């Protein structure tokens, strides 16, 4: 095979599960290009695709193609001077696409910020310049003979003895191949241009040079570690440069962040970078502030609040190695790092690490694989590790580093008290004993924290005269009643409508709230405690940039106050003046069809309990339930999360449920229920033909209507596949996905595949 026959393998922004072959661009001679070892892999290209032009990324160069030669089109343009993604990063991204059975384009391109996906040029800050050599300066037109284009380039370069960057030459119609011909003749060369006063050269993906090693790492002195913290830090830094997963188990106040900081200090001192994943940056301003305070290095944040320009700048700082610490939410796991040194996933149990639509990846799981490929240690921090992570510890794949509660040395943490509310009168969900307990703590000048895990005023609007309830016209769901601003809101599809004045069914004006959300809880508490400031924290109340910070500042002022909110309130914050923490309703975790509900409820209760009596004052924790005799709830209160988690793991093992088996959930949706049902039935039938299903290695459960069958005006049907061996399941999926893609009936319903689902909705 000739080099001229080489094709570029390009991934494009389409959901199709394949890459596309293109010829080298006409301006580029493949033979010269390959001889000069110019890397094309990792660069963006513009190509024509159908009738459109798309921006894609080269993921491979091959001399094999299944497309007839004459049908191949050349790439229209190569957009980058140097690869944007290293080959190692690309290999990982392609693995991710295979693992989740996603199109490689969607997956690989998700590692690029929007502006780069749109084809915006990326200029190195100090691009190398083409410069004439002495021989080139003396060259004459006659000496160049018939190489007219090369002569014109010499004339252009002569105007600027310091040289010109490729972008300028290109604007004059010269491509790199002309430059290279001058180089071969010894007439021109490419030189690095380094501005005065800057000792740092151009970033180069191929070499791992510690560019910023000489700058100071610390801006302030580290804190003194206690023995368990010291042990944790030593354990991780003794394994820098190798894959070493560790769970850092400790409640808020056990000093997890200081462990992260001191591990990162060592990583930076070695000239490497740290990637820190957090559930939600807006919720952890204190943590981010501590990183910035500690280090004299650039810390960049990647989160949904950035505009496209800011995102590109942060991405470049990370991938070119200028930023030493990259802190980001879920999608930051795809950020390329030039000198990766450690990955940290804080609050690793948090469900926000799983993307729940489109490309459904789990950032914690991907971080583990990435750490393994990059041979760096990874720390998973949590007070309530996920059962998946605890199972990894049990299997010996992950080191458990336990940080005891420092406050517990002087004071026993409170045992949560189960308050049975069977047959008790409730005022918007609050029982009299709970309200009395609040009064006691407020009278002592303390703060009270109440978690009510529902937004809005009331989850249901009901007519007292005829029993009509406000349902969503698009979903099998009730509309939530909001007061600010007044509206009905479906939390499943986002549909909003004005509040009716009278019942649409009977015409009476007796519309009542049923149950309570945080807005109503706030109203009831305000009536009961008129002199106490009430601070509500939920997704609705903290909209707008600085609202949450303002509210947190109010709380930290330390006066008596009531804090009411959703589980947002329980995440990561430190409230030293809170002495009573209460959960209004613990029941929906106990009797749910979702096998993960108990794990989540236990995590929430543990986090809420951790809010009470953090400092000098003794705390109290009250949990309202209709099932105070529930054995698991009692085990949690008496023995703590770890002991309950061990029991939940035993239950999961006995029922062959993850993490002791592997699942994939197929979903189909269509305007008509029959279409979705028929597609999933066809899939189930096709699966039955496969030996691994026939012999029972893979179980198929379904197809069944989704727990909420009608959502956004479409009917949802699902099919669950489960196997003890991951590889067996994935082989089956790899057979079924292309089959389904080609199935004509598949066009009548939209389908998706969720590998390792965490919600069966
Ligand atoms: Zn009515
Ligand atoms: Zn709402
Ligand atoms: Zn709806």
Automatic annotation (TrEMBL):
InterPro entries: DEAD/DEAH_box_helicase_dom, Helicase_ATP-bd, Helicase_C-like, P-loop_NTPase, PriA, PriA_3primeBD, PriA_3primeBD_sf, PriA_C. Keywords: ATP-binding, DNA replication, DNA-binding, Helicase, Hydrolase, Isomerase, Metal-binding, Nucleotide-binding, Primosome, Zinc. It catalyses: Couples ATP hydrolysis with the unwinding of duplex DNA by translocating in the 3'-5' direction; ATP + H2O = ADP + phosphate + H(+). Its cofactor is Zn(2+). Belongs to the helicase family. PriA subfamily. Component of the replication restart primosome. This is Replication restart protein PriA.
